[in-house]
Design a protein that fits this description.
Layout lengths: L4 H10 L8 E5 L2 E5 H13 L10 E4 L9 H17 L2 E3 L6 H7 L8 E4 L13 E4 L2 H10 L1 E5 L2 E8 L8 H12 L7 E7 H4 L3 H9 L8 E3 L4 H6 L18 E6 L6 E3 L7 E3 H4 L6 E4 L1 H4 L2 H11 L9 E4 L4 H9 L2 H8 L2 E2 L20 E4 L13 E4 L2 H10 L38 E9 L6 H4 L10 H4 L13 H4 L5 E4 L11 H9 L3 E4 L4 H10 L3 E3 L12 E5 L4 E4 L4 E4 L5 H9 L8
Parallel strand pairs: 2-3, 2-5, 3-4, 5-6, 8-9, 8-11, 9-10, 14-15, 14-17, 15-16, 17-18, 19-20, 20-21, 21-22
Antiparallel strand pairs: 1-7, 12-13, 19-23, 23-24, 24-25
Helix pairs in contact: 2-3, 2-5, 6-8, 12-14, 12-15
Length: about 600
Amino acid sequence: MGRTIIEKIISLRSGKEVKPGDIVDVSIDVRVARDFGGANVVKNILDAGLSVDAPSLTFFTFDCNPGGSDQKYAANQQFCRQFARDHGIRVYDIDMGIGTHIAIDEGLVRPGDTFVSTDSHANIMGAIGAFGQGMGDIDIAAAFSSGKVWFKVPGSLKIVLRGIPSRDATAKDVALKMLEDLGAHGLLGYCAELYGEYIDGLGLAGRMTIASMCTEMGGIIIIIPPNDAVMHELGIEGGEIVTADRDACYDRVLEMDISGLSPMVSRPGHPEDVVTVEEVKGTKIDSAFIGSCTNGRYEDIKAAADILRGRKVAPGVVLKVVPSTRKVWEKCLDEGIIKTLMDSGALVGNAGCAGCAAGQIGQNGPGEVTVSAGNRNFTGKQGKGSVYLASTETVAASALAGYLTTKTDIPSEPVVFPKGKGFPSVKASCKDVKMVERMVLRGKVWYIPRDNIDTDMIFHNRYLTITDVNEMGQYTFDNLQGFEDFARRAGTGDIVVVGKNFGAGSSRQQAVECFRSLGISVILAESFGAIYERNAINTGMPIMVFDPVEGGFEDGDELEVDLIHGRISNISKGVDMKGEPFSDVQLEIYKRGGLLVRPC
């Protein structure tokens, strides 16, 4: 039987013929830590007494806070610089831009390679037919020190896009349509291969846009095999491309009709809540943002400049533009695009991640309505306001109009804000470790029957600079409506029970560590976000996937969880449920207290 692309790449980098579900050690070609997470990576390496495996394959990229405007970010960046100097590691510093884009543009990653980073959008490497994966601090520390990570081979889906969108639609609109059809966890745990006539004609920038949105669909990665034109863009002539066999076995083959697709937009709070721009046209906006790893390429910014040229941003509306990399910035400068943007009234920032990481321009205030070309609009993710997601063309058009609209329906006179309305409301080596022997856990239930609880709800990005686990617990769930007081009320040994796709979104390790800090004994979920699941396993935090039973839980019930056999017993109700037993890898890591713990 033939193999899929992901099966071929992992087989090559593991030295074994693999199939979905296999857990293997994968050799990593490029290992990256950012200024977000980088300090924790270094701290983990130092605390575990580890060395760096291959400095020439190891990098730091400072893209979250290019200005170092936050003191803790600045301290973390300097901490990483010092470590890099001592170990001969190259730093792509605050002047260079988004790390994943640098890895592609600088040729660090080539088709068929493997790449990991403390960036949940590292799977953007699928745009060039490579394997990229966002991982937490412990995983990246392990990759730095050994050159390998353990990985569970995902199942594969084949997605075929049928038809051609309207002339007004872009790759971002196609990505949003896919998100609408698949939902926030439609690709959960899967590698998807993407094909179709539209994809065949799409350049590198458009492919990166779609690939970067995979995380918002819950997927491991969307891989788009590069054609000759894309290989030429990459500056690679005659290189080998990993392709699926004709008789490759897929879990499912999905066809999506994008014929005549019109411009789309995600409504605030949920990237998967997608409608046509037409359905929300006229919604007044306060601000607009163009940038991020999804839409910060030269092609994106040029498309926006073509719409803005000779016009002015609507009075009272703030337009912020952040190119993805220094090279993009310089090309836009050389071609007069930066001047066009500034003449229109836009603020152009340093190359980097911008508002996504809360470290640069792009954040909004309470009550502020933003239309953004980014990839996420989780509540609180980009500030205290509300965020619509759209293409760069829609963002530029809306900035001119003062309300949500498309580039084909920009009014001759912008809508202005009414007056008098007031403000809207709004250093160790091995350790003498006692192996964990407790395999049956008992505790009181916190029942939160919600799906897609993301990492910003669990541990908000304003606390990302915290590295002391003891400080993390107090902030647990303080951005989850109705559970803001969870940290004050939770007790040692309590059990958290949630719905599907728990931990969606960011790769932040703190969203796991905060529960450990509080003494939560185990988290039960119908499914976990892919990165979150790895983070929990690697830190030794017990988690288990379970099959729900109607009426199985209420707040305060006493629960017993058998980690070895996957048995879940509600003692209070006399109800038994089936859970997924710990795998050998999970059990070993749990017993010794974490992936990086090395008993003497």
